[in-house]
Every structure is written in structure tokens, then in C-alpha cells.
TrEMBL record:
It comes from Azoarcus indigens. It holds the Pfam family HDOD. InterPro entries: HDOD, RNase_Y/CdgJ. Gene3D superfamilies: Hypothetical protein af1432. This is HD-like signal output (HDOD) protein. Residues 14-209 form the HDOD domain.
Length: 285
């Protein structure tokens, strides 16, 4: 049996995020954090500059080509959003060379982007000011599986097979077969990267949102978004995903199960565009 800490520690490629992200994080954490310094840091990385400007001018933000400098982008978005977006793009860079056994990366990132889009849509519908941050957390939510398939692929695949046969929920199969589940591993990775605590708390509670403490509402959003992705992976109708979500979660979010099909349609409509924004070299099947 394996612990989440053991699995994360054994993935050497995940040891750290790019230096540019670390420096932007330092600016965010500093009481003297500077928009100009963050713009300078981003501008020093040509590839990151291009991707950030493409993203700001995309439908996600709606500036339609009007933002043509990093300085302007940082001023519009603010330090927090730039931090989150650079984090998302850095994750793409960290995992670019990883090809886990028994995992098709195009399919994996398709699900991650769908989770991000769904989480953002749900958060917007709930009136949360942190809707854009939920997009980034949705993008990172399933990283635990990437670690598991990199370190214990046979065990991870066995747990998935059990879940696909309907024998037990995936996280329960993983706890029994591997010793930990994908949410635990993902949260441990967030801590390993020294991300703001919010990330680990929400990712770690996505299976049982009430365990998220002060962030249980955000965890409930991620829980619903993840159920939608699971239905997409299985080729199921949205109603099947809705049935797996506890009534208490719908009540907490003040949502109806019927709303899941609309959220799914919106995510699917934007999916290809956002995969190309965050993972431009990725080929999806």
C-alpha cells in the first residue's frame, strides 16, 4: 500500500514549477508586490508572453485583440489572476514530457479542461467573485491521477477497471488497491509545490465537499464539475452524473440536477478552443 506523500515524492519530474512562476508567486506574497515587476517577469519568457496575450484576448476574457502588451494584461487582470493563469500554463510545461503508462494524455487534458470550464460556469452561476480561480483549480483537479499513473500504473488501472465495472466508486477502489485516492494525491502535490493553501484544500475535498471546511462551497463546485467529466468519459447522459451527486450538494449550491446538461453543453462548446490555449501542442483523439 502506498501513501500520497510517497507517490508524489517518487515523481522526480514534478519536483518544482518553473522559476518564472516561483518569482511571480513571491511578488504576490510580498506586501510590496509590483505589477510592473510581474509584467517584466512574464515578458522575459517569450513563450509565456505569447500564451498569456492569447488567453487575455480570448473569449474567456473578451478583450478581442485589444490587449497587446504584457503590462496592459497584468494591469487588467491583477496580480492574483496573473498568478493563477501562469500557474495553469506552468503545469502544462511541467507535464509536457511525461507520458504515463496506460494513460492517453490527450484524453486526460480534455477532461481537465472540461472540468475547468464547468467549474467556472458553476461558480459564475453561484455569483462567486472567484470564478476565474475555480477555472484554474478545475484544470488542476485531476493531477493526482497523473501522479498515480506515473508511479503505480498497474494499481491505478486496476482501480479504474473496478469503477468502470460498477463494483465500487473510483476513490474507494483506489483507497483499497493503491492505499490513497486521486484527491489525496492531488492535494499533496499542491502542498509539495507550495501553492496557496486554498488549492490543496479544495482539490483534497472534491470527493466529499463537506470536508473542505471554509472552502466546502468551492469543493462542492469541483465535485459537480468532476461528476460531469466522469459522465463524459463514460459516454453517459448528464442525468446519470446528476444522479451520483448527493441532494445536499445541490442544496448547498442552490442548483437543480437539470442544470447539469446546460453546463455540460457550454463546456463542450468552448472545449477545443481552451485546450489549444493551454496545451497548444496537444493532440486530442
Amino acid at each position: 500500500m502506498h501513501s500520497a506523500q510517497e507517490l508524489v515524492s517518487h515523481v522526480e519530474a514534478l519536483a518544482s514549477l518553473p522559476t518564472v512562476y516561483q518569482r511571480i508567486r513571491e511578488q504576490l506574497d510580498s506586501p510590496d508586490g509590483s505589477v510592473l515587476e510581474v509584467a517584466r517577469l512574464v515578458s522575459a519568457d517569450p513563450a509565456l508572453t505569447v500564451r498569456l496575450l492569447r488567453l487575455v484576448n480570448s473569449a474567456l476574457y473578451g478583450y478581442g485583440g485589444q490587449v497587446d502588451t504584457v503590462n496592459r494584461a497584468v494591469q487588467i487582470l491583477g496580480l492574483q489572476q496573473v498568478h493563477d493563469l501562469v500557474l495553469a500554463m506552468s503545469v502544462s510545461a511541467v507535464f509536457s514530457g511525461i507520458q504515463p503508462e496506460r494513460m492517453e494524455m490527450g484524453r486526460f487534458w480534455r477532461g481537465s479542461v472540461m472540468c475547468a470550464l464547468a467549474a467556472r460556469t458553476i461558480a459564475q452561476g453561484c455569483g462567486l467573485p472567484s470564478a476565474e480561480r475555480l477555472f484554474v483549480i478545475g484544470l488542476l483537479a485531476d493531477l493526482g491521477h497523473l501522479v498515480m499513473y506515473q508511479t503505480v500504473p498497474a494499481l491505478a488501472a486496476e482501480a479504474q477497471d473496478c469503477a468502470d465495472r460498477g463494483e465500487e466508486a473510483l476513490h474507494m477502489a483506489e483507497q483499497r488497491i493503491v492505499g490513497c485516492d486521486y484527491a489525496e494525491v492531488g492535494a499533496t502535490l499542491m502542498d509539495h509545490w507550495r501553492l496557496p493553501p486554498f488549492f490543496a484544500e479544495v482539490v483534497g475535498a472534491q470527493i466529499v465537499p463537506r470536508l473542505g471546511g471554509d472552502h466546502s462551497f468551492d469543493a462542492a463546485i469541483l465535485h459537480v464539475a468532476s461528476a460531469l467529466v466522469q459522465a463524459d468519459r463514460r459516454g453517459e447522459a448528464s442525468s446519470a452524473a446528476a444522479e451520483r451527486i448527493a441532494p445536499s450538494v445541490w442544496s448547498q449550491l442552490n442548483m437543480s440536477p437539470e442544470s447539469l446538461s446546460r453546463i455540460r453543453e457550454e463546456a463542450e462548446l468552448n472545449l477545443a478552443a481552451y485546450v489549444s490555449l493551454f496545451f497548444p501542442s496537444l493532440k486530442m483523439r
